[in-house]
Amino acid sequence: MNDRTALVTGANKGIGKQIARLLAAEGLTVYVGSRDAGRGQQAVEEIGAGARPLVLDVRDPDGIVRAVAQVERLDVLVNNAGVSESLALPAETDIEEFRRTYETNVFGVVAVTNAFLPALRRSPRPRIVNISSGTASLTWSTNPNPQFTPGSGGAAAYRSSKAALNALTVLYAQTLAEDGFKVNALAPGLRATDLNPRAAAAGGDPAEAAQGAVRLALLPDDGPTGGFFSWDGTPVPW
Ligand SMILES: NC(=O)c1ccc[n+]([C@@H]2O[C@H](COP(=O)([O-])OP(=O)(O)OC[C@H]3O[C@@H](n4cnc5c(N)ncnc54)[C@H](OP(=O)(O)O)[C@@H]3O)[C@@H](O)[C@H]2O)c1
Predict the structure, then answer these.
(1) Which residues have a Cβ under 8 Å from the Cβ of 35 and sit 6 or more positions away?
(2) Closest CA to 167 of 86, 106, 126, 212
């Protein structure tokens, strides 16, 4: 199985770049998805052996078609590309922020997943990992817990987009199970990246989160599907 291939969307920086780096270290050929060719090439050079550039803006239907044409077979798809704009409450969030956020975090995942399904079906062990967020857990959002308190309805566009992604994870997992797919969602935890300046203060290492994504990307045949997991493998309540 050392001819395995993976695609990580939004892999030119942050958590995605660390996922690509770890998958390449596992011996996979990794397509480093980046909407900007230069930033993608830079990441490919930093990752080194096994990394390949793939220009891919998940909001661009024509670009997705061009990317699919460059990938014959795919064993692993990591839907990592994501955006987060504000911490606004739902009543204070402009509808356009919801649209922009869903365009990348939800519709982009559907577009990329559906487009790469034929390539994934050529794999004996297809795996899809959707990078979600613990902030999307409706259980955690409605129950007292160390991370989120009831009534903290901030980042409404982002959190609801990831809740939609969680729903899609279950639906894809159910409908692709007969074909040997494993489809799971990851809550990476707070990580110091450009997306999350607040986490920079906490210092969460993106590489630690990437380990959780790699575990789900390389699940054995008896591994779970349709699940939501923390970076350390602990199940996260929907
Ligand atoms: N950091 C955290 O604490 C945290 C917590 C929970 C979940 N997450 C999730 O983890 C994932 C990675 O985020 P991150 O923290 O690593 O953030 P990041 O450093 O900002 O990386 C986001 C990546 O997504 C790419 N991207 C954005 N829009 C795109 C598009 N339309 N097409 C293709 N790529 C696009 C970005 O590309 P550009 O460089 O071109 O902008 C970048 O490569 C996201 O799904 C995020 O929601 C992060």
Answers:
(1) 10, 55, 56, 57, 58, 60, 63, 81
(2) 106
Catalytically active residues are 158
Q: pLDDT tens-digit profile of 144-197?
A: 666 666 557 899 999 999 999 999 999 999 999 999 999 999 999 989 899 977
pLDDT digits (tens, 9 = 90+) for 54-71: 999 999 999 999 999 999
Distance, in Å, from the CA atom of 76 to the CA atom of 147, rounded to the nearest integer, reads 30
Q: Is 133 in the pocket of ligand 1 (CB under 6 A)?
A: yes
The burial class, CB within 10 Å (0-12 / 13-18 / 19+), for 194 is: exposed
Q: pTM of the predicted model, to two decimals? A: 0.97
Q: Is the CB of 191 under 6 A from ligand 1?
A: yes
Q: How far is the CA of 82 from the centre of ligand 1 (A)?
A: 4
Closest Cα to atom 36, ligand 1: which residue?
10
How many Cβ atoms from other residues are within 10 Å of residue 103's Cβ?
A: 15
The best mutation among 196, 208, 216 to test binding of ligand 1, ranked by most ligand atoms within 8 Å of the C-beta, falls on 196
